[in-house]
Amino acid sequence: MSARMPGPVVPIPAAMKPNPPSKYLAGYPLALVEQVQHLIDQDRLAGVLLRKYPVAHGVRTDKALYEYVSEIKSAYLRNAGPLSKVMFDGKLQIIQHALGMHTNIARVQGAKLQAKREVRVASVFKDMPEAFLRMIAVHELAHFKERDHGKAFYQLCLHMEPAYHQLEFDVRAYLSHLDATGQSLWSIST
Ligand SMILES: [Zn+2]
Q1: 185 near 49, Cβ under 8 Å?
Q2: 50 CA to middle of ligand 1, Å?
Q3: pLDDT higher than threshold 70 for residue 10
């Protein structure tokens, strides 16, 4: 049937409408973004992610998170000053490009708070695989030394986690999946 031929307008049911492109993947090459979007639309991204990352991490409390982040810090950023506070933050919103760390950057920028070395991790990371938690911990720790997401920042991330770029992409793909479906893949009921 020719595209020019007028035909009856068939409304697409809401469930069948393709999802709008994910805000979490802005800035990545279009082909990659489309690939993720395609998997989400076909309800296949969940399976891809679960095969790659079958289990959730076991870091359930702020205390356990403190220990987890401390371990990475003492291995790679020993001289960056002591960590004062590490916590899951249910109010921290994940903001499209920045993984929600704008809030944290603003805090870290204040001279007083910079000395305090707080790490806040959005609560959505509580129900994720260990690799994803590691990615966000590395990201936050790198901000202790580099405020902006520049070359030096990413070099520091890669120093702490060689697979950093792939992990950040996979985290963003998962956040896109969450946004589109509301279906959490690693929920642990506690
Ligand atoms: Zn950041």
Answers
A1: yes
A2: 26
A3: no
